[in-house]
TrEMBL record:
Protein name (record): DNA mismatch repair protein Mlh1
NCBIfam families in alphabetical order: mutl (TIGR00585)
Family the entry assigns: Belongs to the DNA mismatch repair MutL/HexB family.
Gene Ontology CC annotations of this record: MutLalpha complex
Keyword DNA repair attributed: yes
Subcellular location: Nucleus
Gene Ontology terms, MF aspect: ATP binding; ATP hydrolysis activity; ATP-dependent DNA damage sensor activity; mismatched DNA binding
Origin: domain of life: Eukaryota
Gene of this entry: Mlh1
Organism, as annotated: Drosophila suzukii (Spotted-wing drosophila fruit fly)
SMART domains, per the entry: DNA_mis_repair
InterPro entries: DNA_mismatch_repair_CS (IPR014762), DNA_mismatch_S5_2-like (IPR013507), HATPase_C_sf (IPR036890), Mlh1_C (IPR032189), MutL/Mlh/PMS (IPR002099), MutL/Mlh/Pms-like (IPR038973), Ribosomal_Su5_D2-typ_SF (IPR020568), Ribsml_uS5_D2-typ_fold_subgr (IPR014721)
PROSITE patterns: DNA_MISMATCH_REPAIR_1
The UniProt record lists the keyword Heme: no
Length: 660
């Protein structure tokens, strides 16, 4: 057997092979030429198409144009104005850099360029074939900018032309490319028109916005559900600008517009990470709409890894994707506000749901994997709160703690109207809560089933097939803190009847061990008077923002209602008022709200366990008030992970039983 003879390919063959890698369909040619127009600082780009771009694909812009001297070599391979040395790739900030787009197009189509620069008195028109200029550029009239006309695409590659889809689908691909660049470049106006049609298929105005262009191109159903956020990371040196849909929107077709350093690219890993977050909220097989623009240091990005430039490689890819995933998770946690659900009644005689889903019956569920209870079930004692029998009319000065008040002493007054919070300090507190939320703990809390109280600090609950014990007081304190900042200025009030004298309450607090008073601190009466003066001075703030009312006569008239059916333990009220006077930073706004909310949350988290009847009421409150509120409201910070311990799980117990 004789070895084959190695020959050097003809230059025309080499160029057509390279062109086939870069220009795979009309949409690739459009992408390359759109990027050239954007590099030329165009403010308006018009695209005209015939037969899905195969007969005609024309791009007209009002950019800087091409110099007459450069027309001779503009369609030769590796001719570019973007770089001169290989090292320039490390700092490349433009779209094109290899100088292959126009050359590749000229090898697979008939190419005509008409251009005019600001310095020229007239424009020039040139035609090209196989990378060579045919004749000399001819003078012509025209406006500043460039018109590139591509005719008979793939006329010399019949296999490629036959392998393309229908003309309608190729036009849809062209439209999709233009739409993505229109969303990312709202300062540029884009127009797409089929030749012969009176109205454009797509048009966006100049100096628009991304959300407005999304509304124009993709529809109001998406634009009204958009959630916009930006994120900057100083560790991995990247910035992200995102527009993502809330969980009320979903579609069967996935749409992710990803730009990295202004380039339209694809990232399977990033798309999978975002989809995994939405999988918690959306039905199976449904996807969100996501626009994402990442900005990285140019030296961390390798743009020269694919002929069509639709892929890039960058440093710290896994870490950056994980950071973005965490940000999307944090934003989606509170985005259920517009979610709607629809219910359809089953028609008489229709089969049950289980009968129509025979495929699910083939999936065997083993006993050790069965969840033995349902978080949505209700118990009768939920509607039968235990009554607390207590004596009224006890003098405040007769004990070191305030006596428990009868139930009829409390009356909840709802907030008069919902007011919008504009204070930046409160809004920052909310953002901090949302960003610090532990997605893992939140996913557990969403479907917990209360089991029982161990003592005043600890409770048992079930999640799926696992049994946990948690610090109820720590969870309650965080819950009440968050309710204070999310219901800021809109809290309902618990009216105390009759009102309690402030100075006597403060004297009681100084008599208690919790206050830690010593003779060196001074006279109790003077200390109580000083604390009362502070609270009376700050009473308007507490009344306006938190619903805690102290009258001018010095009587405590109401407390804030943080969770429905929850009443604070008045036995701890004296110490709470003393701490408001001494431990709250009343001088600085942000610190004031933070310390006030923390002290109030600490007070509300202490239930009454002193007597049997009070303990029964506290157990009822824990099961039917606090745990439902955990499921509904609580965004747990990471530190609460340390307050949850897994005791056992069903698979482990089955292993023990099997050994027996």
């Amino acid at each position: 057997m004789e070895p084959g003879v190695i020959r050097k390919l003809d230059e025309v063959v080499v160029n057509r092979i390279a062109a086939g890698e870069i220009i795979q369909r009309p949409a690739n040619a459009l992408k390359e030429l759109l990027e050239n127009s954007l590099d030329a600082k165009s403010s308006h780009i018009q695209v005209q198409v015939k037969a899905g771009g195969l007969k005609l694909l024309q791009i007209q812009d009002n950019g800087t144009g091409i110099r007459r001297e450069d027309l001779a070599i503009v369609c030769e391979r590796f001719t570019t104005s973007k770089l001169s040395r290989f090292e320039d790739l490390a700092q490349i900030a433009t779209f094109g850099f290899r100088g292959e787009a126009l050359a590749s197009i000229s090898h697979v189509a008939h190419l005509c360029i008409q251009t005019k620069t600001a310095k020229e008195k007239c424009g020039f028109k040139a035609t090209y074939s196989d990378g060579k200029l045919l004749g000399q550029p001819k003078p012509c009239a025209g406006n500043q900018g460039t018109i590139i006309s591509i005719e008979d695409l793939f006329y010399n590659m019949p296999q490629r032309r036959q392998g393309l889809r229908s003309l309608a689908e190729e036009f849809q691909r062209l439209s999709d490319v233009l739409a993505r660049y229109a969303v990312h470049n709202p300062h540029v106006g884009f127009t797409l028109r089929k030749q012969g049609d009176a109205h454009p298929a797509l048009r966006t105005p100049v100096a628009s916005s991304r959300s407005e262009n999304i509304r124009i191109i993709y529809g109001a159903a998406i634009s009204k559900e958009l959630l916009e956020f930006s994120y900057r990371d100083d560790v991995f040196k990247f910035e992200a600008d995102c527009l993502i849909t809330q969980v009320n929107y979903s579609a069967k077709k996935s749409q992710m517009l990803l730009f990295i350093n202004q380039r339209l690219v694809e990232s399977t890993a990033l798309k999978a990470a975002v989809d995994s977050v939405y999988a918690t909220y959306l039905p199976r097989g449904h996807h969100p709409f996501v626009y994402m623009s990442l900005t990285l240091p140019p030296q961390n990005l390798d743009v020269n890894v694919h002929p069509t430039k639709h892929e890039v490689h960058f440093l710290y890819q896994d870490e950056i994707i994980e950071k973005i995933k965490q940000q999307v998770e944090a934003r989606l946690l509170g985005s259920n506000s517009t979610r709607t659900f629809y219910k359809q009644l089953r028609l008489p005689g229709a089969p049950d749901l289980d009968e129509t889903q025979a495929a699910d019956k083939t999936q065997r569920i083993y006993p050790k994997e069965m969840v033995r209870t349902d978080s949505s079930e209700q118990k009768l004692d939920k509607f039968l709160a235990p009554l607390i029998k207590m004596e009224s009319g006890v003098s405040l000065s007769s004990s070191q703690e305030a006596p428990p008040l009868p139930e009829e002493s409390f009356r909840v007054t709802s907030a008069k109207k919902s007011r919008e919070v504009r204070l930046s300090s409160v809004l920052d507190m909310r953002v901090r809560v949302e960003r610090q939320c532990s997605v893992q703990v939140r996913s557990i809390l969403k479907n917990i089933v209360y089991v029982g109280c161990v003592d005043e600090f600890r409770s048992l609950f079930q999640h799926e097939t696992r049994l946990y014990i948690c610090n109820t007081r720590s969870f309650s304190e965080e819950l009440f803190y968050q309710r204070l900042i999310y219901e800021f200025q809109n809290l309902s009030e618990i009216t105390i009847n009759p009102p309690l004298p402030l100075k006597e309450l403060l004297m009681l607090s100084l008599d208690s061990e919790a206050a830690g008073w010593t003779p060196e601190d001074g006279d109790k009466a003077e200390l109580a008077a000083s604390a009362a003066e502070v609270l009376l001075k700050k009473a308007p703030i507490m009344r306006e923002y938190f619903g805690l009312r102290i009258s001018e006569e010095g009587n405590v008239e109401s407390l804030p209602s943080l969770v429905a059916q929850h009443r604070p333990n008045v036995a701890h009220l004296p110490v709470y008022l003393l701490r408001l006077a001494t431990d709250v930073d009343w001088e600085h706004e942000a610190r004031c709200f933070e310390t006030f909310c923390r002290e109030t949350a600490r007070f509300y988290s202490k239930l009454d366990w002193r007597e049997e009847s009070a303990g029964a009421h506290s157990r009822w409150t824990t099961e039917h008030v606090l745990f439902p509120a955990f499921r509904k409201y609580l965004l747990p910070p990471p530190r609460l992970k340390e307050k949850i311990f897994e005791l056992t799980n069903l698979p482990t117990l089955y292993k023990v039983f099997e050994r027996c």
